[in-house]
Amino acid sequence: MRRPEVSKLEEMLGEQFGVEILNSMGLATVVLDREFNITWANNEYKKLQREPGEIIGKKCYEVSFNSKVPCSEKVCAVRRTLKTNCSSKGLKIIKKDGEEKFLDVFSFPLFSPQGKLEYVVEVIQDNTQLYKLVELSDRLTAYASHELKTPLATIHQLATVLRGIDLPKEKRNDLYDRIISRSQHGLKTVENFLIYSKIKAGELEITPIKINFYSQVIKEVLDFHTDYALEKGVEFECEIPQDLEVICDPDYIQVVYNNLITNAIKHGGEKVFIYLGYSEKNHDYHVFNVANTGKFISEEDREKIFQRYVSGRERGSGIGLDVSRELVKKHGGKIWVEPCYFLGKRCFWQEEKVKLKIKENELTQGNNFVFTISKKLKAK
Amino acid sequence: MQPSILIIDDDQDILEALRIILEGESYKVRVALDGQQGLKAIEEEKPDLIILDLLLPGKDGVSVCGSLKTRPEYRNIPVIVLTALTKKMGDKIFTQREEKVLREVDGYLDKPVNPQELLIKVRELLEREKDEKTRG
C-alpha cells in the first residue's frame, strides 16, 4: 500500500509542476472532454495547429483536420482511450498550409475523484523530420538496390555466357571489357550514393587544391568514358585549355563531369556528340560547360532534373545531377541547363544562332549544362 | 533455313550476351534497341520468335506486345518477355491493361537469363509454332 505522504506529494507535483513540465518539454499538449471539445491546450499545441485565435471549446478534429466528424477509432488514440479507459498511442498525419506533419500521439485518461473518465490528455510529439528521414532512407535504399540490380544482372549475364560457351579469344576479351565497363559504372553509382549520404548527413567537405585542370580532371574523366563511349558511338570535343589552373577538389569535380557525361550519353539519343568547354570571361567564376546533342529539355524540366530521383529510365542513378549540384555548391558555384544548338561539331547558344542568322532546321538540338567554380576558393 | 529471332532490348551488353547464346545454336539473330526500332524490324522481316524487354525507351515492351497482338499477320509470332522487372521483386505494379497484354505472351524469363532455360523455351515455342503451321 502506498504511504499517504507519497500520494500527497504526487498530487502536489501534478498540480504545481505538471503543466510547467509539459510546456518545458516542448510537447504539444491538449485536454479534451468526452465530446472531443478542447478544454485546455498549451502554447505548443496552438503553434502546431497554427491556430492564432482561441481554440478552447472547438472540436479537436475540426482544429486538426478541418473536419466535421471525429476520426475513426482505428486512427484516433483519444477514441481508444475513451473506449478502454487506458492510455493509447498512434500516428496522426495533418496538413497545415500545404505542409504534411507526422505526429506521434500519446493519449492518457484523466479520471474524476469518483473514478469516472472525464477527460483525455493528448500529448503530441512532432516527428515530421524523423519520419521524412526514414522515408528518404527507405526510398534511397530501394532506389540504390534497383540501380545496382541492372549492372549486376548484366555482369552476371555476361559472365554466364563466358563460363558456359566456348568463344574465340577476341570475343572473350570483348565480353571481359564489357564486364569491366559495367562494373566501373556500377561503382560510380555507388560513389554517388555515398556522396549523397554524406550530403544528407551534413558531412560533405571538399579539399580544394591548385591543380592543372586538364590533366587532373578532364583527362581522367575522358579516359574513364572512352570504352563505354566507343561502344555507344559517342564523340567528344574538348576545348578546355590544357594549361588552365583551378583551385578545386579534383575528385569531386570529376564526379560532376562523370555525372554530366553519363547523363549526356543516356539522353543524347543515337550518335551523341559531347562538347566540353570553358569560358574565362567571368571575373568571379570559372565557367565550364558540358553540351550534348539531344532533344531540348523542356523549360519545366530544367529545374526538376536536379531534384532527387527525377530521371529517365535508362542507365543512371537519378541522383547524379542532384549530387553534382551539391558538389558545385560546395565550390561556391551554381549549375544549370539551357538549350543549345549544334552545327556539325560547333556548339551555338541562342544569341549566337540569332546573330549568325542560321535557320533552326539546319541545326541539331542540344542541351548545355553549365557549372561554375568560384575563383575565391582558397587552397587547403 | 534456321529460324530467325529478334531481340528487343535497350541494353547492348544484354543484347550481345543473348546473341552469343542464340547464335551458338545457329539461330539467325537480329537486334533492336527500342520498341519503335523493333516494330520496324518486324515489318522489314517477320521473325519466327521475339525476345522482348519490358522497359524500353519510348514505346515500351507492353506497347510493342499490344501492337503485335492487334495485327493478324504478327499475332502468332511467339513472344518471350525478358525483364529485370518481376512482380516478385515488387518493382512494378502492372496496370490492368498491361496485365491483359502480358497474359497473352508466350513466356517470361528473368534477367539475368539462364542460357539453358532460354534455349529450352526458344526451342519449345518454335516447335509449337511449327506444329501449328503444319496443322494449318
The helical percent of chain B reads 40-55%
**Overall pLDDT metric of chain A:** 86
Task: Please mark out the parts of chain A with pLDDT under 50 across 5 or more consecutive residues, or reply none.
Answer: 310-317
Low-confidence stretches of chain B: 87-91
**Which value, in Å, is the CA radius of gyration of chain A?**
30 Å
Distance between the termini of chain B: 20 Å
Mean pLDDT of chain B: 86
The global form of chain B is globular
Instruction: Let me know the largest β-sheet of chain A.
Output: 6 strands, mixed
From the spread of the alpha carbons, the general shape of chain A counts as elongated
| Total DSSP E strands of chain A | 13
Order of helices and strands of chain A: HEEHHHEEEHHEHEEHEEHHEEHE
For the biggest β-sheet of chain B, the strand order reads: 2-1-3-4-5
Indicate the proportion of strand residues of chain B: 15-25%
Structural class of chain A: alpha+beta
Q: Tell me the span between the first and last alpha carbons of chain A.
A: 70 Å
User: So what's the CATH class of chain B?
Assistant: Alpha Beta
Helix content of chain A: 40-55%
List the total number of helices of chain A. Answer: 11
